[in-house]
Every structure is written in C-alpha cells, then in structure tokens.
Amino acid sequence: MATQRKLGRPADQRKALLRNQVTQLVWFGKIETTLARAKEVRSIAERLITLAIRECENNVEVKKEFNNDKGQTVTVTVTNDMPSKLHVRRIMMATLYDLQEVKKSDESKADFRERTKDNKHPIIEKLFREIGPKYKKRNAEKGCAGGYTRIIKKGPRRGDAAELVFLVLVLRREMQAAGRMARRFCVGERRKGFQRAEGPLAGSGTASQHPSLLATPQKEKPNLAWSAKRV
Predict the structure, then answer these.
(1) Among residues 27, 57, 77, 186, which one has the fewest Cβ atoms lying within 10 Å of its Cβ?
(2) What's CA 169's distance to the chain center, in Å?
(3) Do the Cβ atoms of 75 and 151 come closer than 8 Å?
(4) Cβ neighbours around 131 below 10 Å, total
(5) Short-list 48, 132, 51, 136, CA closest to 96
(6) CB–CB of 168/154 below 8 Å?
(7) C-alpha span between 57 and 78 (Å, rounded)
(8) Per-residue model confidence as pLDDT tens digits over 169-178
(9) What is d(CA 16, CA 5) in angstroms, rounded to the nearest whole number?
(10) How do residues 19-72 score in pLDDT, each as one tens digit?
C-alpha cells in the first residue's frame, strides 16, 4: 500500500505542487484545493508547525566585537540560533519556497527597508516569530498538541466533481468564524446552482405554481378543410 498519495502527477511535479501549497498556507493562512491535496498539505504543514513550536524560543545571545572605520572597537549583542533551531531552520528552508515581503502602497522605501532589514527569510521568521508562539500558548492553555489546521468542505467542483475544500490555520476561537464563512459560501454556491438550473423561473416557486411546466404539449390538429379543398 502506498504511503503517500500520488495525486496523478510524477514525483517532481508532485513535490513542487505540495511545496507551493504548504508555502501559501503558511503565508496566507488559508488555501482552497481538493480534498486529496489538502490531506497531504496538512501533514507537511503540521509537522513544520510542530518544529516551530519546539524551537521558537531556542535562541542564544552572544557579544561580537569589530573595528569600525575609525579604528574603534565596537561591541554588539547578536541573537543567534541554537544548533537544534538552526537544524530546524534548514529543514524549513528546504521545504518552503522563499517568499519575500512586498512594499505596502502607503509605505516609503526607507520605511520598507527599516521593516525588512533583519528579516531575510520572511516566511521562516513568520513560523518562528508568529505561528510558533501563538500555537505554543494555545497548547499550554488547552493542555494538548496538534490540530493546527482545519479542513472545511466546500462541495464538488463543476466539471470533474472533485471535492473542493478550504484548508485553514485556526485557533479554537477562530474555528467558529471559519465554519460560518464556509457555510455561507456553500449556501451561496447552492443557490447559484439552483438559479442556473431553473433559469428565469429560479426563486419564483415550485413547478406546481407554474402550470406551463406541468402541462402536456398537445399535438397540432391537421387542417381538414385545407386537405379536402386540395383533393
């Protein structure tokens, strides 16, 4: 029995597909994909989040001395990774694509450089600085671990009827809002499908309210007068 879903693609395309979807999930917090792909992406993403939770605070501060342009000795304090965190960082960099920050529309170039000067790999730092501490606090409050993602079913896709889902990163207080969003979306899609199926009579009642839909078409009677006249 296969231990991994093949997803109908060769190995290189499958790895690139999963890397891309895991990267988008970590970066945006939500993706839309098929159920089979979502299950594969979920296993990879939860493994990375578990590593981030374990190593997010594993830092060490060291002092470094160097000589500046004037020949003066300057001492600075630098925060470095412990060996275990460095190993996890390399695993994440091998798994995720390296996305870069985008300058905001109302942000100057100087502000953008100041905001990103100590963040060479934004998606890795997002795991260590934002996602890891958030779920570490949640695990401490609930006394459990795992369950960092949720699959919300959207319905079959038109064309090939593949099961579409939303894969989201959630906390307990966010799960209800995500469920309401998915239900509203699914209800809206069903209404659109009903309107497409019924055409101009959509939403105007059942077939019993439209006798024209139930009436049996009658055959056109021949014109006997015209036939007798011709004979």
Answers:
(1) 77
(2) 8
(3) no
(4) 20
(5) 48
(6) no
(7) 15
(8) 987 555 556 5
(9) 14
(10) 999 999 999 999 999 999 999 999 999 999 999 999 988 888 888 888 888 888
pTM as predicted: 0.70
Residue showing tokens 């459990």 = 144
Determine the residue type at 53: I
| Token pair listed for 53 | 């939770």
How does pLDDT run across 69-111, given as a tens digit for each residue?
Answer: 888 888 888 888 899 999 999 999 999 999 888 888 888 888 8
Query: So what's the pLDDT on residue 223?
Result: 57
**Residues counted in the chain:** 231
Handedness of CA 91, 94, 95, 101 (dihedral sign): positive
Q: What is the SS3 assignment for the chain?
A: CCCCCCCCCCHHHHHHHHHHHHHHHHHHCEEEEEHHHHHHHHHHHHHHHHHHHHHCCCEEEEEEEEECCCCCEEEEEEEEECHHHHHHHHHHHHHCCCCCCCCCCCCCHHHHHHHHCCCCCHHHHHHHHHHHHHHHHHHHHHCCCCCCEEEEEEEECCCCCCEEEEEEECCHHHHHHHHHHHHHHHHHHHHHHHHHHHHHHCCCCCHHHCHHHHCCCCCCCCCHHHHHHHC
Instruction: Please classify residue 148 by burial: count the beta carbons closer than 10 Å to its beta carbon, then call 0-12 exposed, 13-18 middle and 19+ buried.
Output: buried
- Read off the tokens for 54: 């374990």
Contact indicator for 26, 123 with CB cutoff of 8 Å: yes
Distance of CA 63 to the CA centre of its chain: 41
The one-letter code for the residue type at 70 is K
Bridge partners for 64 per DSSP: 76
